[in-house]
Specification:
Helices cover about 35% and strands about 10% of the residues. It is α+β, with helices and mostly antiparallel strands. The strands form six sheets. It has a five-stranded antiparallel β-sheet with strand order 7-6-16-15-14, sandwiched between helices. Strands 2-1-5 form a three-stranded mixed β-sheet, covered by helices on one side. A hairpin with a 4-residue loop joins strand 6 and strand 7 (about 425). The chain is elongated.
Amino acid sequence: MSANDPEVDPPESADPQPPEVVVEPETPLLADDLTDAGATEDLPEPEASLEPESDPEPDLEPQPDPEPEVVPDSDPQPEIAPPPLEPETTPAPVTDAADGATPIWMRRPWQIGAGVAALLLIFMVWLVGALPLGQALEPLESPTLVLVAADGRPIAKRGSYKEAPVEVAKLPKYVSGAFISIEDRRFYSHMGIDPKAIARALNANAKAGGVAEGGSTITQQLAKNAFLSNKRTLRRKAQEAIIALYLEARLSKDEILSRYLSSVYFGDGAFGLRAAARHYFDKPPEALSIGEAAMLAGLVKAPSRLAPTENLEGARERMRVVLGAMADTGLITKAQARRAARGVRPYGGRKPIPTGSYFADWVIPQAKAAMEASYGETVVKTTLDTNLQAQAEKILARALDRDGKSLNVGQGALVAMRTDGRVVAMVGGRDYKVSQFNRADAARQPGSAFKLFVYLAALREGWTPTSPILDAPVEVSGWKPRNHEVKYAGRMVPLITAFAGSSNVAAVRLAKEVGRDDIVRTARDLGITEPIPNDLTLALGTGPMSLVQLTAAYAAIDAGEAPVIAHGLASFRKPKTVRKLGKAELAGMRDLLRSATQRGTGIEAAIPGAFGKTGTTQDYRDALFVGYVGDLVVGVWVGNDDNASMNGVVGGGLPARIWKEFASYAVARNAPKAALVEAPPVETEDLAVPELPTDGTVPEGTEALDAETPPDAPVAPAADAAPVPAAEAPKL
């Protein structure tokens, strides 16, 4: 407000009797105008009354505020000065303009302190219901899983190790005393936070120019381990301090120490003193010697670096420091410390087990989903056959070492399962130590191995192995699929002949006749869950899927029911959704699969009782053979991780030879126990299986190349494909 602005009387709410003083401003304004314009924010606080004391009017009834008279500038009235104000001895308090409250920063210190205390009290009350005090004593969310093979032999170990909690009262004094001596000497005297330790740590860190010493108490460490993360931030330290105070208020010192010892990390995946004593010394913590207790107490500072199984000398050096601290506090004598330092070495009670393998990586999620949190180690029995697994690894590695360089084959995979889906062997690559990527469970194009679903869908619609199909060039919406080496029979052939020779054009024609929806439905019935192309390229296996899923689909033909769920746990239970396959479709499909191994593209895999199908993708990027013999179903894939082309490798070549070697070993091993039972032939009186052409149109041991095309676009013919005259390429 400027010096020329008028002074305005306070509203009537300040005094029930309105003043009679008339103030003539230079530019008169209404009282409401001043309020709306925000002028009242610049006015001083009103006094109790601006009326002269000599002229009170106590008998008058309160009247409403009169409308101020607006006088034009042209006719000003003489100014009447307001009566003098009596000085105030005590200034009125400053109030907030919004609600009349005194700002926080203007309040007295005791008021601020009371507010902070109230907030802390509310927070502590919240903590009472929010913090599970027994959390440090509970089992780990991911306990140790020990996977064992079907014969009980341990094959892999995963997860952290934690045993049942310890009770300080039941431990020798030197066991718990070792931790107090080196970690928190004033544990029994402080309130959860040790100012002396914090000051000492700050001084030491300042001199070292970094973090050289910590000032956390055992209570603070428990707060961090049980409720917080390991991030070094001021916020976490503040939370840690508050929780430590809360723990001290709720628990006794022995309860805090018991929880700390039951949950602290000791390296090698061991959490808690009982687990560490069992892991490193194969004894309970109640039986630890002074030296062993000192060595375990020394691990807390750097558990991974000082684990005696990895760094025995470092662990012993730290143990001597702990023994010195125990002697300094009077827990033991110096003579006892010298004797205790001799001959302490770990004697692991837990046998070393490999932490991983392709099969272990694949089955661990199944095991975790089926287990509950528990102390110690949880033993999970799997379906793995250790002999078959070792043989699979050996055969695949030998084949790649022998032919990999000349054929430009860098990787391979093999999965073997029983007809009920029990996986007995899984090799996901050439060397697990070099690459843990599981190629057996990775999605790759199956090529002509997908034709299983095309032909099975046709059999469901009434086709038979002898039904004729044209093996001649075809064009579909501008796409001209081609057979291997652009060779065709050029005539009608039985389905069994087209399947055995893996004719691409016949498969596309058949897919057109059957319809994509029926083919997709058939694949889904047999357990395929991956996306399937939305055009006729699906007939040539352009939709990627895993070798495990594809092999399980073939297992359904062997089992006579679908779907077969590939699994690795012995406790697996077959779902109720499994249904029996029809006799006619099952018999017909078995005849088709047998023809491929007896006289077709899979002849390199021929052994008595073998059924199967080859698969090769465009430019020789993937080559597969999937089939079964007896109750063993095996899938083999070879290729390169960078999707590079191999040197002419087809499904009937290297993959079929690997399959045959592995299947022959399994058959020979099981021969004395049970004879192989071959599926009965299709019950058709007029079945005639023509011999394959002898003019080279379907070369023995070769595979038809499958066009690699996106699901939503037609596949263009290869650049080197021979042109097909319009007359030879009838439209579908």
